[in-house]
Amino acid sequence: MRTDPSVFTEPARPEALQLRFVTVGGSYVDVTSPGHDSGKHRWTCHGCKDTSHFPEQDYLHSIRSKANEHAGLCRAIPLT
Ligand SMILES: [Zn+2]
Questions:
Q1: What is the Å distance from ligand 1's center to 74 Cα?
Q2: On the chain, which terminus has fewer CB atoms closer than 10 Å, C or N?
């Protein structure tokens, strides 16, 4: 069963936010960085609190698919 994302409130969007994916659990995975062309993108899941493990090495073209893949698997619901 898929949780309807609309039952949860979207968190505030930080200034460094580049992309946001909704998860199957109804939470969000954020991709943040100092800038669009930065090589220091990282992803963080609001549901399970997992994050990318080597943020200094991730460019947007690399981390986009990793963040989207996590969003497609994570069933943790947002607790705040
Ligand atoms: Zn997660």
A1: 5
A2: N
Residue 78, domain member (yes or no)? no
CA 1 to ligand 1 center in whole angstroms? 17
Number of folded domains in the chain?
1
Residue 28 bridge partners (DSSP): 22
Domain interval for residue 34: 15-73
Could you tell me the strand order of the sheet in which 28-32 lies?
Answer: 17-22, 28-32, 42-45
Q: What is the pLDDT of residues 1-53, one digit of tens each?
A: 555 656 778 999 999 999 999 999 999 999 999 988 888 999 999 999 999 98
Cβ contact 41:18 at 8 Å: yes
**What is the predicted pLDDT for the residue at 13?**
96
Dist. CA 53 → ligand 1 center (Å):
13
